[in-house]
Amino acid sequence: MIIKRIVLENIRSYVKQEIVFPKGTVMLAGDIGSGKTTLLLAIEFALFGIKGNELGGEALLRHGTNEGMVQLEINVNDKEYTIVRKLKKKAGSIRQEAGFIITQDGKTEMTAVELKSFVLKILGYPDDLITTRKSVIYRYTVYTPQEEMKRIITENSESRLQTLRKIFNIDRYKLVRENSVLVSRVTKQQIIEIKGATEDLPELVEREKKEKEAISISRKSLEETMAKLAQIRVIIEERKARIILIEKKRHELLEKQKQFDLLNQDIKNSEENINQLKETLEKNKQRANEIKKNHDEIIIPEERPDLEVLNKKIKSKELELTNYQEAIAKRKAKLISFQDNKTRLDEEVKSLSHRLISLQELKAKEVELKEGVANKEELQKNINDTRENWENLRIKLSEAKSRVNENKKLATELEVASVCPLCTKPLTVEHRSQLLKELELKINNAKISEVEERIQKEKNLLQKLEGDFKVVSQHEAELQKLEGQLSAVEDISKEISVKEKQLTQIDFEVIQAKDELNKPTPKIQEELNILREKEKEIVTIQLRLEQKIKYKKEFSLVKEESHALLKKVEAQIKLVEEKKINLGKISIVKGQDFEEQYRQEKSSLNEVTEQEREQSMKGAATEKEIEKILEHLNEIKEKIKVKKEKLLQLKQKTELVNWLEKFFMPLTETIERHVMMSIYQEFNELFTNWFKMLLDDSFIEVRLDDEFTPIVIQNGYEMAVAHLSGGERTSLALAYRLALNKVINDITTTIHTKDIIILDEPTDGFSSEQLDNVRNVLDELAIKQIIIVSHEAKIESFVENVIYITKHEGVSTVQ
Fold this sequence. Notes:
Layout: E1 2-11, E2 14-20, E3 24-29, H1 36-48, H2 57-60, E4 67-76, E5 79-90, E6 93-103, E7 106-110, H3 112-123, H4 136-141, E8 143-144, H5 146-154, H6 157-167, H7 171-197, H8 201-297, H9 307-361, H10 363-372, H11 376-416, H12 429-445, H13 448-486, H14 489-517, H15 524-585, H16 594-695, E9 700-704, E10 710-714, E11 717-719, H17 726-747, E12 756-760, H18 768-781, E13 785-790, E14 801-808, E15 811-814
Parallel strand pairs: 3-13, 3-14, 8-12, 12-13
Antiparallel strand pairs: 1-2, 1-4, 4-5, 5-6, 6-7, 9-10, 10-11, 14-15
């Protein structure tokens, strides 16, 4: 991985800044607190996002802002990637927002978790070495804060060894052994269970033998039963054949008898039908006489009025009556309409009069409101001035707090520093005390509490003025509405006058409508009633005439029906005579007793069938018994099969336990020792060489013990790391850091961050000679991109590129 460019917006002390990183050795130069470390944290944030308390959103987002962004451009395996992560302040907390990544395939929106997963994939980092709180492999290969490396060296050996085992992935051997022990324990328990489950196998084999013998005996009995059953079924078939022959002869006799009876019954039915036809013929004659009598009794007058002429007169009168009724209805509707209009106009005049009185009363309120809104512009000016004062005080407070925080941080650093960060000279007790007093005086002179009190007063005044302005704005709106209402007074007066004139006209029209309704009614209805009575008389005569015609037609139909019935009777009599002749031709042979033969054969068949049923039941019982024995036998066989399989499993599991305990687990211990020894040898050799290059002191030697703890030997005697000088401790930490970087990169072949290393203040406490040694170390590293964070001016002389960072009034910039 090579870092090409980074863009920061609202990240700690940076407002908006772009930094381009070239290949080779790059130095980030600047005073303490200028913002160098912020760039390193921003790079780590862009790659892995927020990581708990170690790299939280509150530590990254610039104070006083709600949104921040980091854009990082990197090259991995000759492929360009642009990663963008965002921070946003919501409800008092700072969270990661969705970001995106740009590749040669285009732009892809991703959540914070998806971005982290993508970065881990392109960097080739194992997922188990990146936690939500710490990027272990990144911190130990690419960027390790110098103080953190010193802490690793001085922490207890057990914690350090556990951390290194995890980094070098040696824990997997321990995990394999623990899993092997677990597998062995579980397998032994399974062996005990299998032995218990297979104890009854010999008993099952003996039961299987007995069940097979029982099946053999039952099958012989079944064969004997089936032979007897076959003989009985032959006899049954013979009996059934004889019964079928008898039934055939019985059927022929019954068919002839049935034919005779049907024909005899048909003759009887035909004779009854003839009698019914004769009765119907007689009734028709009587009905014809009755119809002729009714026809002769109906008398029709010779002269009849014309119904069509009468209907025209009736329709004319009805039309005349309808027109008169409609005219009356229109007069009544007109009168009601005039009365409704009069009522409506009376109410409108009263309403307008009340409204006119109310509007005239609003005149006094209009004068009052005009006085209230007269000072609106002056009030707005006071609000603007107060808001400007409040904003200026807030900016001043923010700057003062920033300066106080910087002075406090500088004071903290002075407590442990050995070199003055201002003049770069060795820091004496008096010089440190003088600097601390000056910083304390600057902190006290900031008078933050007084500024905060002034801000609160300005804020309270601003809230009061804005409240007064809101009330004035409401009065102004109310005044505009009131002026619009008062402009309608003259229009209302004119409208009242118009409506009063309309009321006078409506009173005149009501009187005219009442006079028209009081006119006398014509006698149209009486004349119409007389015409309708004449209409009823004509209709009655017409009905009689229609009835007389109907009787005449009915008489003719009855005569025709009687003639047809007479012909039908004659045909039926002729048909009966023919059927009687056919009846005499049917002869039935009597005296053949087929019933007795049928009963005897049937009885014999039932006896043989009973024998068949008994043998069938016996055979079915035997088959069922065999089926039960077979089912039980299959169950026994299945149990024997399962138990034999378990015996096979018992053998396999016993062999597995022996292999795990005697061969596999000792082998993992041997492999782990060899791997650890190989790592130790490389780590120790690199650590020793780097330390010699950095310190160049023949009286001090270093090495690692078997727990990777640095051992310092001076003049042949071991000494504690804490007793080393500042420069010596820094040399020790840097050598350990570089050796750890090299070993991890050699062992973890999948990672793609071997081309870059970031060294944070690697020369703290170094002498001028040691700084010269750093040049040789950088040449020895042979890494494509080395980024050094330092305030040592001498380093600038042997690096290829220098990026200068300054800070002014809380804002960092790159020169």
